[in-house]
Amino acid sequence: LVAKRRDDYRAPDFTITDVALDFVLAPDSTRVTSELKVSRQGSHSKSLYLDGEQLTLLELSVDGSAAQDYQQTESGLTINNVPDTFTLRIVTEVNPADNKALEGLYLSNGVYCTQCEAEGFRRITYYLDRPDVLAKFTVKITGDKASLPTMLANGNPLESGANDDGTHWILWQDPFPKPAYLFALVAGDFDQLTDTFTTQSGKSVALELYVDKGKRSRGEFALEALKRAMRWDEETFGLEYDLDIYMIVAVDFFNMGAMENKGLNVFNSKFVLADQDSATDEDFFNVESVIAHEYFHNWTGNRVTCRDWFQLSLKEGLTVFRDQQFSSDMTSPLSNRIKQVRVMREHQFAEDASAMSHPIRPDEVIEMNNFYTVTVYDKGAEVIRMMHTLLGVDGFRAGMDEYFRRHDGQAVTCDDFVSAMQSATDIDLGHFARWYSQSGTPQLALARAYNEQTDTVTVTITQRNAPTADQTEKAALFIPLQIEFIDATGQHVTPDQAMYADNLLIVDKDTTTLTFTGKGSAITPVALGNFSAPVKLTSDLTPAEWLHTFRFANDAFSRWDAIQQLYNWCIEQYYQQQPHAVDENIWQGLYQAVEASLQETEILGECLVVPSFETLCQSRSNIDVHALNTARKAFSEALAEQLADLLLTIYQANQTDAYDYQPEQVRARRCKNVVLGLLAQLPECKDRIIAQFEASDNMTDTLGALKAAQHHDLVLFSNLMNSFEQRWHDDPLVLDKWFSLHATCERGDILAQLTLLRQHPQFSQQNPNRVRAVVGSFAFYNTTGFHADDGSGYRFLTDYLLELDKQNPQVASRLVTPLTQWQHYSSTRQDLMKRQLARLLEDSGLSKDLYEKVSKALA
Ligand code: B3K
Ligand code: ZN
Question: Which ranges carry the Peptidase M1 alanyl aminopeptidase Ig-like fold domain (predicted)?
Fold first, then answer.
């Protein structure tokens, strides 16, 4: 298995301008006829090579005569001596019913569905399956009329009709040239929701949402969210929808969240279906954000696409940034920013520290599906956000306008994007662009010194970029650091030197210093405001100064972060067996901070969340997993005891009446349920948990009660879980929450529990949502179970992956992640984890997907 390298990019030897596809659907023998207009690019006499996997070739002709001179391999087809321009006709057969990898064309639950990104189209027919070949598609679908009343493809429906044999057909045409990864076909029997949207220029767009029969009312929220996203993109970026019809289909079997196929988005039903009874506030949030994300791809991804897959962040980082800004506008900036930063600190920093570390624009790839990562997506979005910070709102908009002016209809690179941004504003992004090529999390360390003679405080910020698994050579990055300074009285002070802008310092060298003269010795820097860069920051602040920061900083994110840093410090004392270092002053300070914030529901709720175990790992090494997990819990319990009376007040003050998914209520429920989670650690909380569970009229409070019960006591937990199962046993999407709660329960017999869950009638290894809910929740979030000292958790995951990999390599490859992230742990544990990785590598039939990650993790 050889890696492809970004540097090896070559423009295609041939291109395809027009594609006519004809599908005759049948479960195990779907016939695909493809007619391609092919033309040679440049002057050369090379053969035409087309990608194709797992296809049965039935016919091949060039300009109407059967081709003779061709060779077939496992991965493609070479046709020799072709003319400069010609029509190629290919007939292949595929087996959708047998397709458990859910890539290409597959049939599940009676629905035919495609997933082509990144390289799935080659499992449908032979093609130039690369994003820089853009063609116009027409698609004819023929299928059984009774079981497949709805048959969809990209673009607009042109004609349809019925045949005598009980089948019917429809012809679709997409006027926009597109790469094959944006092709989609869906056929099945759905409930439909329809609406219209009038664009800012007055064009009417038909909106159509397709969901499982009987789930119509659960689709209403998604449709409203779509309209909000369409309006927002017009208002914020001047971007209007470009076809007459926009379709979204929700399917139950899907490898990831959703897919932005031109005019025909395919969604995991988890990110479409939502109502008060079945969905939490977080689910509603996710639906709105994924709906928006896929919609925004129509411009950032589809109208302007990627030249090659190494450029993936061109569309993903940018589109994540856009959906983040949208969500922030729809809900609130603070909780959104905190959510985003949690993803970075829990998952992206972990990826950077692992064998899978890669720049947001990777240099080397074996299996592209392995690179739809938190680095490409979320760190990619942070890089776009930094440009937004540096250019300002108007500068960024000008850059986006310039990007579309230059590149609409093209397949381009990350460099093209940066260059458009730069030219629209004259801001030199040369040094900044290193964020695209350098992997790893920069470490900033902030230290202070006071010179009494001159009454000068010197603040020194050092930047360190440690070698990563993929890159040994590192250079200083261009880091926009939002920073404010407060004195002992809480007044803001400014440094002697001018900065890039108010509160914005550029850290672009190994060492950056600022001085404060005549302002006394007690200056508290509040750095990394709004998480202005994806970096780790350490500083010499004392617990008292973190509390001071919470009290006086202007930046709300920094106030939250100060409490998180303080918690981290406290947990470290417990971890070092010095819980008494967390003294009366600290507890009192925390008590007062919370008491002073009773009215600020949003920040209060977030401040009462103790950093996750995964986050704690990112600032430590040689970790004793159980000691750290225990320290975290002991601190959390102490926090609950110390604040008990305040927590009760908060719990009571944040009861909401008649459920509505609306920001103020969401904040109150969040705050209330975070508090319940803390109180659940105290013995006297049982009745409160039961009362909330029984009185709840919405999934948010129900789940809040179940989570609290999980921390409180196993008997209570089992009772409530049983009653939940009774109510939801025939609703797999809701039952995923139940699966996941069971799988994350820290109990001695967890492996036996997992075995039971796998035997549950609603569990299916074929369905990625179920697998993620059970096995994923366990491996990612069951700290004591997964990290059992005898290695049984690692063994369980490995056994499972050896099975799953044979069916669905993409999902298997995602689930192996926790096993590959052994770097932070003690060496005995590392050995246990590597022993299981070695077992995977011994499997001769291992997929490319797993091979790439496992072999790196063992290198
Ligand atoms: N572009 C798709 C992801 C495709 C993943 C392929 N393994 C969804 C998205 O980012 O919007
Ligand atoms: Zn995307």
Answer: 440-539
